[in-house]
Amino acid sequence: MNEAANRIKARLDGSMPKLAFVLGSGLGSLVDAVEDAVRISYAELPGFPASGVTGHAGELVAGRLSGKPVLILSGRAHYYEHGNASAMRPVLETLKSLGIETLILTNAAGSVREDLAPGSVMLIDDHINYSGLNPLIGEPSDARFVGMTAAYDAGLKDAFEAAARKAGEALPRGVYMWFSGPSFETPAEIRMARVLGADAVGMSTVPEVILGRFLGLRIAACSVITNFGAGLTGNELSHQETKDMAPVGGKRLQKILEHFLAAY
Predict the structure, then answer these.
(1) What pLDDT digit, counting tens, does each position of 72-96 carry?
(2) Which of 14, 53, 129, 197 is the most buried (most CB within 10 A)?
(3) Annotation-wise, does 180 bind a ligand?
């Protein structure tokens, strides 16, 4: 077990969850619902990234949600911050060594569909790695050849849809396309994304999915839609829009997560 895992384990006094979340931009309010919360700054954990993105707290929170023990990563490292697609590898390896079995990823994303409006939530059914980057480049073992046919666990997707029905919230499935960022996409790139089969675009999550599957974790992911893609409205895009709209969809996602956890 690595040093970060040892420090986390010592703080949790032997109570080890099997489920972990990674929260995207503007979605940190979920940690406010955690009962008996133990908060550990990433700065205290060797190998954990110092996020330079507003809307990412940069802390690990452990406790109970809907009565279930969970670990929450409030903030992530992005490729566009460091030029390193594997920046989250030490974090996910730490989770794996702690006994985490299931990883739920969330992000803020732009919609490329007129019927997928800001404030809605999309269950990621599959992804397109348009960046061409991969966090396993340089991995020396044959384990680097990770199958991605079922990257997003079918049972978890079904469980999320059941939770959404109980919560009375819409949860359409869709394909997420990863762009490297940090600049937003052009209108031409959004038109291309639609042609290629994407439903939403964003700058995160895919590296963690690849790393999670490499580590043998079950994966599910949801996008909170914060804006329409470039060219769909005529308006310019901004990170402020992401921060403003993420809490709107975040409230819907939190309701879904509560029902998901109650049945988990």
Answers:
(1) 999 899 999 989 999 999 999 999 9
(2) 53
(3) no
**Is 108 annotated as belonging to a binding site?**
yes
Kindly tell me if the per-residue pLDDT of 228 is higher than 60. Answer: yes
| Domain coverage including residue 218 | 3-263
Q: What's the rounded Cα separation, in Å, for the pair 115 and 256?
A: 20
DSSP β-bridge partners for residue 111: 200, 228
The reply, when asked if residue 76 is annotated as ligand binding, is yes
Both tokens of 105, joined, read 């990823």
For residue 144, the domain's CATH number is: 3.40.50.1580
Asked whether the predicted pLDDT for residue 151 surpasses 80, the reply is: yes
**Element (H or E) spanning 147, and its range?**
none
Is 56 marked as binding a ligand? yes
227 known ligand binder? yes
CB-based contacts of 110: which residues, under 8 Å, 6+ apart? 184, 185, 190, 200, 201, 202, 225, 226, 227, 228, 229, 230, 237
Query: What is the tally of structural domains in the chain?
Result: 1
Residue 112: what pLDDT? 97
Q: What is the pLDDT of residue 52?
A: 59
Contact (CB, 8 A) for 112 and 229? yes
Q: Is 165 annotated as a binding residue?
A: no
